[in-house]
Amino acid sequence: MRPSPEDPRSEELSFGADSGDGPRPSERAAEWARAHRRLLTAVGLSAALVAGLGVGGRHLYEKSNQPLPPPDGPWPQTGFLTVNLCKGKGTDFDSDWENCRDREAPTAADRQKIEAGLRAMPELRDIRFESREEARANLREKSTEGTEPDLVDIPEAYRARVEPGDWKALRSRIEALPGVSNVFLFRDGFWWDKADIGISLCPESSSLPTNPCKGRGRPTEDEKRNVFDRIKALPDVETVYLEDPAHYLKMLRHSYWEETGSAANDVAHLPETFYVKLKRPPARDTINKIFEGMPGVNDVSDISAFRR
């Protein structure tokens, strides 16, 4: 049943001209507001929330349209090593290593002793022998498209994973094994478990004659935006990071833990790099073609190819 105008349950919602009878419109409005204080408060909060979502949502959208900085970590403490074996007297490779001068290449029996020595070291695991043919195939697979790695002086080698420990002492023990020429020992890459592809941009300066960045300097903001837009257009993109030269230097110092040369401090030669995490990484050739020839792009790398 609809309340009559005299019914006290009726509510005055019209705040128009004064009729001359009863409270004035302003008084009726005040009474209605007092009676509906909770409702007005809820409406006001809702309006404020909607307005906030408008501003905040736009901010979140703008942030989502920018690459993220590199994550804080983790910084891997494990690593990998290559134990190169002597190639034999008279080779250019062995002339550079004191351990191999005037000695023959290790025989099968010598290799067994070297492998037994490696397996006795608790810091090492997943030890495997790599022939010259396997090493050549691996280098060809990881070389940049259009370039041919120098395969002449590749020696036989052992490869292994390395656990945290005293790596300097470990390397000294390995180099003392007869038939070992040299040892390369590095920490795992910072980006190995965080990204699938890396797209490095032109550094401030580059002296390599075949480098696409020679003589041009770092990319402009428009060039960087074009690269980022093309990354975002890739299928199955999860996260895009942009690493600055300072973080790149920190990453190099972490992986190449014994590097002390001045080149390790020259950020002018270090690029900014986009790192991209994908749900389903496409083939490397596909990625290379997508970014090939883009102004400001230096190199495209398949991060998964470097994982051990």
Keywords:
single chain, alpha+beta, 4-stranded antiparallel sheet, 9 helices, disordered N terminus
Describe the 3D structure.
This protein is an alpha+beta fold. 34% of the residues lie in helices and 17% in strands. It has helices at residues 25-35, 37-64, 92-95, 108-119, 132-142, 167-175, 221-232, 245-255, 284-291, and strands at 79-85, 124-130, 157-162, 180-187, 197-201, 237-243, 273-278, 297-302. A 4-stranded antiparallel sheet has the order 2-3-1-4. The longest helix is centred in the first third of the chain and has 28 residues, at 37-64. It is elongated.
Please compute the radius of gyration using only Cα atoms: 34 Å
Strand order of the largest sheet: 2-3-1-4
State the secondary-structure class: alpha+beta
State the major sheet: 4 strands, antiparallel
| Low-confidence residue ranges | 1-30, 35-63
Q: End-to-end span in angstroms? A: 80 Å
User: What is the H/E string?
Assistant: HHEHHEHEHEEHEHEHE
Strand portion: 15-25%
Shape type = elongated
Query: Could you estimate the helical fraction of the residues in percent?
Result: 25-40%
